[in-house]
Every structure is written in C-alpha cells, then in structure tokens.
Amino acid sequence: MAWNQSSDDQDATTRRGAARSPKLGGWLRRWRQRWSANPGARSPYYAAAATAALALWLATGFYQVDDGERGVLQRFGAYAGLRGSGAGWHLPWPVETLTNVNLDHINSADVHSRMFTADAVLVTVAASIHYQYTDARAALFAVRESEAVVRALGEAAARELVGQHRIAELLGGAARTPLASAMRTALQQPLDGLGAGVRVVAIDLTDVQVPEAVLPSQRDLVQAGEERDKMAREAQGYAAEVLPAAQAAAQRQRLDAEGYKLQTIGTAEGDAARFDQLVVAYARAPEVTRTRMYIETMETILAHSRKLIIDGKGGNTFVLPPLDKPADAGVPRGGAGAAGGAAGGANAGRAATASSSELALPDERSRERGERR
C-alpha cells in the first residue's frame, strides 16, 4: 500500500543518516586528537588564517566611482581628498573611508504646509523642490542633512512669497509661475550663504487650495475685502471729482482776495494822496475849498437818491415824479385839475411851494458864492 511504502522510505533515510553520523563523529575525534597531540603543527594554520583575514581586510580598500560621481576620501573622519570616476584603492576601514556623491542626480524635497496670503486667507501650499549637488565636499561637511535644510529653507521662502500675493492670484494660476521662479531665487541665496554645495534646479507648485474647514469663513473674508476695495475705489473717484473743483474754487478765492487787496490798497493810497492835496488847497484858500467840498458832497449824495422836481410858479402846480421809479411817486401826472380833488391839489401845491422855496435857498447861496469867486 502507498502509506506503507512511504513509511518504509522514511525508515531507510533515518538508518542512512545514523550510519553517516558515526563516521563524521569519528573523523572529528581523530582530528582533535592529532591537534592536541602535536601543538607545533598549529602554526601553519594560524598563519594561514591571519593571512586570509589580512587579505580580506585589505580587499575592503578597493572602490569604484561611477561616472557623474565624486568620491570623498576621509582619513580617521577628516577630509583627505577627492577621487574621480574609476576604480582605486585606499587604506581600509577604520583608517580611511570613501563616500560617493552623485553630482548628476536630481534630488527632490517636498514641501507641504499651510500659509497666509496677502489678504489674510489661509491656504495649503504643496511644492516640490528639485536640486542637485555641485560640490561633493560641501555636500558632506557643510550641513548635516542637505535634504532637511533644503526643505526648511524652501518652506520659509514659500511663506514669505505667498504672503505677498492675494488668494485670487494664487488660485487663478496667473501668479504661480512667477512665484515659483521667485521661490527658486529666494531659496538659492541662503544655500549659497551656507556654502551647502547645492544648486536649486526648479520648483514646482503642485497644489494651492483653501482648507475645507475654513472655506466658508475665507469666502466671507474675500467678499468683505472685495467690498472694501469697491468702496475705496468709489471714494477715490469721488475725491478725484471733487478735489479739482475745490482747488479751483480755492484758487479763485485767493485771486479775488489778492485783487481786493490790491484794490483796497490802491484806493487807500489814492484817498491819502487826494487828502494831502486837499490839505494843501485848504491851507491856501479855506473858504473856496470848503464850498467845493460841500458841492462835491451834495453831488455825491443826490446822485444816489430819488429826486422830486416841483415847479411852483404860476397858477398851476406841476409835479414831475421820479423818472426812474414813476410808480413810487404816488402823485398824478397832470396839473391841478387832475383826479384827487381841489383840496388835495391845493395842499399838494402848498407843500410843493414850500419845498421849492426851501430847496431854492441853497441854490441861491451857491450862485452867490460862485459870483463872489
């Protein structure tokens, strides 16, 4: 049967292993006895083992530097030189070590962080920084971890530049290319200052978005900012419209004031000059000067007052009302027979006669003064 055959095969294998084990054990016992019986025979074995170990240790000094790489040789941890591409040998560890630095490989460091924009909007920015080593020695000795330094400086540059742009510019994509170029420049400067031996090849802004948790608040904030800008533009337009008119009015007032000033000063100076001349004339002929001043004064007064001319000679009284305002005279344009009654006409005649006699006195005195002159 099959199960019986399988059991028989297992028993045969066990018996063969038991037969070999006594043979191997006997050989090891005989070799141990010879080793213990002849100590002088051990030296060749020791020498062979030491030679093999030394050969293996020296073999660890061989190295291979591929194309595009530089080998940095260190002796007891200190810099000892550079090795170009190709095979070579150096003293094995721990005396010397060789570290290969690839100068052609493009390395990447990712930045993912939340930042504030110029209009105080919280955004999540994801960027990928591509860089390569330019100096193998600086890559190992200038900074402890080049990738961590590049990531930290790239995040700092991104925070500074994102804070100078508005959310609409970042989400619209118009500012991403200039922003990435500016980030590359802003990142390269501190790396050069550190002497890190790193050249930033390119920076890709892979994602700029507003976090879902703050999206409603940020939307309200953006709307409020837009309204603020609209009101500011309207205020500036109103100021641009009103300010020139106000400046023109102020300029006109200044010019009017200057003209009034010059006019007043000229009038005052003219009056002063006339007064000086009048003083001289009065000193020479006081009476004549006084009369002339009276006549000029009356001429000035009567020129700006209403005048009523009455002719009281003859039997009829003729009243001539003022020519400039005939409606205000309140007297008829006819003679004594006009409407208004005889008594009224008589009273008006007597009043007019008295007025004419009173007015005639100054005129007669004036004529007499003129004849005496």
Gist?
By secondary structure, the chain is α+β, with helices and mostly antiparallel strands. It is 59% helix and 18% strand. Among the domains are: 2-55; 107-210, Band 7 domain (Tetrahydropterin Synthase, Chain A); 302-372, no CATH class.
Structural summary, described in words:
With 373 residues, the chain is of the alpha+beta class. Among the domains are: 2-55; 107-210, Band 7 domain (Tetrahydropterin Synthase, Chain A), CATH 3.30.479; 302-372, no CATH class. It is built from nine helices and ten strands. A hairpin with a 2-residue loop joins strand 2 (69-75) and strand 3 (78-83). The radius of gyration is 62 Å and the shape is rod-shaped. The model is unreliable at 1-7, 12-19 and 326-373 (pLDDT under 50).
Radius of gyration: 62 Å
Low-confidence stretches: 1-7, 12-19, 326-373
What CATH first level of the domain at 107-210 would be assigned? Alpha Beta
* Main beta-sheet annotation: 3 strands, antiparallel
Order of helices and strands: HHEEEEEEEHHHHEHHEEH
Q: Taking strands numbered 1, 2, ... along the chain, how are they ordered across the largest sheet?
A: 3-2-5
Q: Based on the structure given, which CATH architecture of the domain at 107-210 is correct?
A: 2-Layer Sandwich
How far the N terminus sits from the C terminus, by CA atoms, comes to 185 Å
Overall mean confidence score, pLDDT: 77
Structural category: alpha+beta
CATH overall fold name of the domain at 107-210: Tetrahydropterin Synthase, Chain A
CATH homology superfamily of the domain at 107-210:
Band 7 domain
* Helix fraction bin: 55-70%
**In terms of quaternary structure, what is this?**
single chain
What is the number of helices?
A: 9
Shape assignment = rod-shaped
| Range of strand content | 15-25%
